[in-house]
Every structure is written in structure tokens, then in C-alpha cells.
Amino acid sequence: MKVAVVGATGLVGTKMLQVLAERSFPVTELLPVASEKSIGKEVGFKGKNYKVISAADAIAAKPAVALFSAGGGTSLEWAPKFAAAGITVIDNSSAWRMDPAKKLVVPEINADALTKDDKIIANPNCSTIQMVVALNPLHKKYKAKRIVVSTYQSVTGTGVKAVSQLMNERKGTKGDMAYKYQIDLNVIPQIDVFLDNGYTKEEMKMVNETKKIMRDDAIRVTSTTVRIPVVGGHSEAVNIEFEKDFDLAEVRNLLSNSPGVVVVDDPAAQQYPMPKDAHEKDDVFVGRLRRDETQPNTLNMWVVSDNLRKGAATNAVQIAEYLLEKGML
What is the extent of the structural domain holding 169? Predict the structure, then answer.
């Protein structure tokens, strides 16, 4: 089982290597790929060092699967070349997510849509993944009509440069700026660029990807995405209006028995999910479950997950595990 990791030196690529090792994915040969300036550098995997190679050399080595986390431009250029060589690509960028010919997959929800012919598979946006993992069991039971979500997203979602900016500001030292504004002791209500409708690309990703993953274009979604000075994971305040009424005890039970979901919801003991507790974990944590008292059939919940893991690397590896289990790799 040869496995290529494209973008192996970045934050998510490094996390992919870590998750592949932790989950004992049967890698017989690792092919780390990065930009030209990184070729020849070494990355560690399961106690061994591997030299970074070019994308062309990785294709020539014919891996069974290539996990991509190198940005949209790289994916648009190289994913079709890997696919043409018979290599299954699982891509973490936004390049293929809304392509009608490509599957957008969260394994707990819609892995059943995958076939052996799917050679480019899209990994959803991190903020979308954690929301739909929590939403899916409730949507099945009560049918979601409308979702209002506000996100509180970790600087790790931007990358190493953003983490450095936060830490530099915390120490009072000058350095490269990933953001136009200071992030320490601040929040920035903009993630990605603004579109003509006044929403950002990140906000519209949540709108469009949710409908595609849930296989339901009737769900109405509105989103506000915000960058905050934390590193452990993304948090979301989610308000869901359902067609059917619900019982809160049943909601807790449904979530507690859903794969990949952990309920942390004990207001009396001040227990609720926080990014520092989700850090380096693969689960989606849900709490602050309560009715919206302003209208019927509407639930409020707080959702937290490590954006580099379930929001990116772990979800990609889980897709590969599903393909392997079903004999598609």
C-alpha cells in the first residue's frame, strides 16, 4: 500500500502523517510530496525519515492513494494527473468540493455514495465537517429546515504563519502577518475573501457544502465565520429549525449514540465543549443543548472539534479507510 501525501510539510499534511500512523493505516511505502523548495527535505513517519519528492515522481511511483493538502491551485493542476494514472485522490482543498461530478464526503454521513470509479474525492471544509457530523442524526429524525451558524475558528485553520503571528503578538515581537489585523486579544469577522453578496467564501462554503453532503438542497443555511485567537480547534454556535418537534432527552440520546459525536452537556457542573479539550482528538463535541424559546421546533447547540484532525486530516484518512475496507483501493 503505497501512500502519497501531497503538501506533506504543511500543518495539515504533517497532521495527515500523524493520523495515518496513529490509526495504523497499512502504509508500506510513504511518498511525501511538497513544493519545489522542499524537495530533498525529510519528514518523519513511524520512526523513519522519508525524502520529499516531486508530484511527478510520486505519480511515477504509482501509489494506491494520494492525500492532498497543498491548496486549490496545486489540486487543480495535479489531482487530475494522479487520477489519470489510476491513483485515488482525496483532496482537502476547496478545488473540487462543489464540482457536481465529484463526491464531497464525510464518512459518517455519505461514504455509501463512493464507488471504485471515484478517483478524485473532495474533503469538505473544516467548519462544515464538524457541523454536519452533529447535524446528521438530528436531520434524519426531525428534518432540518433552516440553520443559522456562527463560527469561532482557530488560527491553525489559516496555517503556520497565522500561529506564528498569534504567538509573536503574545510575546510582543514583530514578525510576518498572516492577517491584516492583530489577532491576539482580538477577533476578526472575516475568513477568506468577500463575495458580491456580502458573505465571505468561507461562509458560502458552509451553505453550499452542507446541502451537498446532506443530499438535501431544501435546507436553508446562513453563516457568519469569525477568526479567534485560539489554537485547539473550531467552535460553532448552531441554531437549527426542524420540521418536526423534538424532545431534548431524545436529542441527547441520538447524539450520544452517533459515531464520532461526544456529548458534553452539564450546565450545573459548568461542563461544555471547549477547543482546549478537543485538541488532538478526532471526535466532534456537542453541548449547550437547549430549545430556542423564540420559535417552535428550534434547537441551539454548541459544536467543537479539532479542525486539523476531524476537520481535515482524520476525515481524509477515514475516507481512505472506507475505500480500503470496501476493496476500492
Answer: 127-307
Nearest to 292 by CA among 145, 126, 127, 128: 145
* Spatial separation of the C-alpha atoms in residues 58 and 2, rounded to whole Å: 10
For the CA atoms of 301, 307, 310, 315, the dihedral, rounded to the nearest 10 degrees, stands at 130
**Do 253 and 273 belong to one domain?**
yes
Residue 223, domain CATH: 3.30.360.10
Q: What angle do CA 112, 259, 102 make, to 5 degrees?
A: 30
* Regions of the chain where pLDDT drops below 70: none
Q: What is the pLDDT of residue 63?
A: 98
**CATH number, position 66:** 3.40.50.720
Is the same domain home to 109 and 176?
no
Tens-digit pLDDT profile for residues 122-166? 999 999 999 999 999 999 999 999 999 999 999 999 999 999 999
**What's the pTM?**
0.96
H or E stretch covering 220: strand 220-227
- Three-state secondary-structure class, residue 71: coil
229 and 134 fall within a common domain:
yes
Active site residues: 126, 234
Contact 238, 131 (CB under 8 A): yes
Dihedral sign from CA coordinates of 291, 298, 292, 204: positive
